[in-house]
């Protein structure tokens, strides 16, 4: 059985078809914003450069890695940028670490 669309739905569709995607529709959603989800620069010191391992651990902690995993990964040759990219894409930190850990390093803290 086919059901006719609700009249108000047709009205909105007709308005959209007539005015294009920039129309001020009654139920339009807000688009993407430039709101930052992280505080920039918390891992940077004001003085001389910090220890690379300490910086790597700080970046991993900012991304949501647990303390023990961040500490372990900071001391390995795992690609920090790839780890952060995986987590930014929604991969859990433990899984990102497991995916990118070198095979010859043995077992990790996961």
Describe this structure in words.
- This protein has 110 residues and is mostly helical.
- The chain has a domain at 49-110.
- The chain is 45% helix and 0% strand.
- It has helices spanning 7-19, 52-62, 67-74, 80-88, 93-100.
- It is elongated, with a radius of gyration of 24 Å.
Features of the shown structure:
110 residues; mainly alpha
Sum this structure up briefly.
With 110 residues, this protein is mostly helical.
| Gyration radius, in Å | 24 Å
Average of the residue pLDDT scores: 74
Helix/strand order: HHHHH
Q: What's the quaternary structure here?
A: single chain
Number of strands: 0
- What is the molecular shape? elongated
Helix content class: 40-55%
| Alpha carbon gap, first and last residue | 54 Å
Largest sheet: none
Beta-strand portion reads under 5%
Number of helical regions? 5
Uncertain segments: none
What structural class do the secondary elements suggest?
A: mainly alpha
Give the helix/strand layout.
Blueprint: H1 7-19, H2 52-62, H3 67-74, H4 80-88, H5 93-100
Helix pairs in contact: 2-3, 4-5
